[in-house]
Amino acid sequence: MKLNKAACLKTLGLPFNASKSDIKKAYRQLALKYHPDTNQSEDGLDKFIEIDSAYDFLINPYSYQHKQSSSGDAVSSKAERIKKAQENFQKRKEKERLEEEEYFDDMFKGKKGKLLFFVSVFFAIVSVLLILDCIIPNSRSTEKVNSIFSGNYTWVFILTDDYKYTFPAEHYTRIHSADQLVTAKSFLFNEVASLTLQGEEDQVTYNFFNYRNYYIPLALLFLLPMFIFYRRRMKTWYTLLYMVSYYVMPFILIGFLVVNYRFLALLRLY
Q: I need a surface site. Which of 99, 169, 173, 233 has the fewest CB within 10 A?
């Protein structure tokens, strides 16, 4: 039977610009649907043979034509053609399995796999700590204010024995004589949630951007390496996420821990 690309693509339900990956995916789905083990109808068996031939032609048309010309009428009966299509299906299935094993072996075996496992576990720990920091109530402490001075039109600086804080300049006239500072910080990462300046007659509270708004999305992002390690897929998007997890995510984590001395806060050194 003479085949052409348009007819074969139509058999697989694909557009003319379908990629090799699209062809393999469509063949796999249709072959499972019309496989003789699950579909014994005459139309289903005919369709199974058509799908096999269409796939063979689209993946390697020259090889298909050579096989057709060399085999002649050797495979003529319908039963033999079905059997041949089943054999092809099993061979392709096994080939895909071996390709998948080789693909993942390169990613996860040896030093590269051990390093990714270590990175994924460390990220998962930090992710849990981020979620806990959102749940645990803020810790509060009172510090003596040593000096308050205006830095620019936007912020004023407040110096205590241990830290330097910023406060909106619009409150300068109310806080310039304050002598105590009450800070509310997250328990684990020491993230400042609010500052309250107290004077003899007045007090002003400034609530910073709520760190919980980005801690939860960040915690989910930090679970990406663990997802990549355990949910393996032979897909382009998976490879891209693998590269991000392996080469980019460690730098994101380092940046997160270094900014605001969060790694020192975890060690209770800051």
A: 173
Give the domain 5-107 fold: Helix Hairpins (1.10.287)
Closest CA to 133 of 184, 92, 81, 197: 184
pLDDT tens digits along 95-116: 888 877 787 777 788 888 888 8
Q: Cite the DSSP H helix spans in the chain.
A: 5-11, 20-34, 42-59, 61-71, 78-108, 110-135, 172-175, 212-221, 224-230, 236-243, 249-258, 262-266
Q: Which residue type is seen at 178?
A: A
Phi first, then psi: what are they for 37, rounded to 5°?
Answer: -65, -25
What does the angle CA 61 – CA 1 – CA 76 come to, to the nearest 5 degrees? 110
Angstrom distance (rounded) from CA 173 to CA 113? 59
Task: Say how far apart CA 234 and CA 172 lie, in whole Å.
Answer: 59
Give how far Cα 214 sits from Cα of 104, 131, 218, Å. Answer: 33, 11, 6
Nearest in space to 140 (alpha carbons), one of 86, 97, 195, 88: 195
* 115-126 confidence digits (pLDDT tens): 889 999 999 999
Find out whether 206 and 192 touch, Cβ atoms under 8 Å.
no
* pTM (two decimals): 0.62
Half-sphere exposure of 88 (CA within 13 A, CB side): 21
Domain assignments of the chain as residue spans, ordered by start: 5-107, 113-133+214-266, 137-210
